[in-house]
Amino acid sequence: MPWSNQNGGGGPWGGGGGNNQGPWGQGPNRPRGGGGGKGGPPDLEDIIRRGQDQLRGIVPGGFNGGVALIIIAIVAIFWLFQCIYIVQPDERGVELRFGQPKQEVSMPGLHFHLWPMETVETVKVTVQQQNIGATSASSSSGLMLSGDRSVINVQFAVFFTVSDPKAYLFNVENPAETLQQVADSAMREIVGRRPAQDAFRSNRQPIETDVINIVQGTMDRYHAGITVTGVTIQNVAPPREVADAFEEVQRAGRDRDSTIEEANRYTNQRLGQARGEAAQIREDAAAYKDRVVKEADGEAQRFSAINDEYSKAPDVTRKRLFLETMEQVLKNSKKIVIDEKQGVVPYLPLNEISKPSQQGG
């Protein structure tokens, strides 16, 4: 500019702009340098220069060689962190060397491997649940055809554990999806063999057991490393279009079962009474038999005793038997026997004589 060369580089008004002076010949009211003046802010360049000097004193080989060393240390720390891994208590780890799995399985705890030549895959070994089938009444993913040609919507769950982590990770591409497809196919097969009522009522246990056997056998053939621990049918419902009619059938079935149960209760009651009466009749017959047999035995023994006495004294025994027999025969008789030798009185009130005997009898 025209004024820049005047007065040794001064301002346009003749005042020198050098020596830190303003355009009016007056310098700025602030100190220069590294905070030499009192109360002024420190110089940023001076702070950076002192920091560089301190860094050169700390890092061997100077500042330029220390940068490389820092980079190497950061890379080493990063590599060390990548080499260390932790297996949780509910997991198992399988190390891979250049993509090839090792024989040993890493148990829970802290482990070391040579990354990136070696990597690790972890898998949960606790009981896991796989839900299969419809999750809502409007879904058709769980529709199955039963043995009696009824369409039902089945929702069930498969519980499994990973028994072989290596087989689970590398023998099957997608073990969870494979398990879902196999379980769904097995449930459709078993439901197709049975009537729909078995899935709706208390006959679910045989269905679940058959599904477990089929799924476990299939996963074993695949060498998937999965152990099926249980299958639970969570919900069974008819399709939404026939839900009302199906409910009517269910109510009729419940009424039928109630009637059958009531009839069974009545049958059991009547059968119990009949059995009790039969037992009472048998006991009475047995008691009558014992009584008659004992009476017959007593009569036989008495006859034997009389026969023995008769053989000893026939006349006396014959007379005694006659008298005893006549006594038994005439004891309740209304006839009055009068000895002719005693005579007959003029008046004999026979009716009055017979009354005491009747009253006493």
From TrEMBL:
Taxonomy, superkingdom: Bacteria
TM segment ranges: 58-81
Annotated membrane topology: Single-pass membrane protein
Keywords: Hydrolase, Membrane, Protease, Transmembrane, Transmembrane helix
Annotated stretches, region: Disordered: 1-46
CC per GO annotation: membrane
CDD domains named in the record: SPFH_HflK
InterPro entries assigned to the protein according to its UniProt record, in alphabetical order: Band7/mec-2_domain, Band_7, Band_7/SPFH_dom_sf, HflK
Places the protein is found: Membrane
Record GO biological process: proteolysis
Pfam families: Band_7 (PF01145)
Biased segments, Gly residues type: 7-20
Gene3D superfamilies tied to this protein: Band 7 domain (3.30.479.30)
Domain Band: residue ranges: 82-250
One GO molecular-function entry: peptidase activity
Bias type Low complexity, positions: 21-31
Family matches, as SMART domains: PHB
Family statement: Belongs to the band 7/mec-2 family. HflK subfamily.
Summary of the function given for this chain in its UniProt record: HflC and HflK could encode or regulate a protease.
NCBIfam families listed in its UniProt record: hflK
Subunit comment: HflC and HflK may interact to form a multimeric complex.
Protein name: Protein HflK
Source taxonomy: Bacteria, Pseudomonadati, Pseudomonadota, Alphaproteobacteria, Hyphomicrobiales
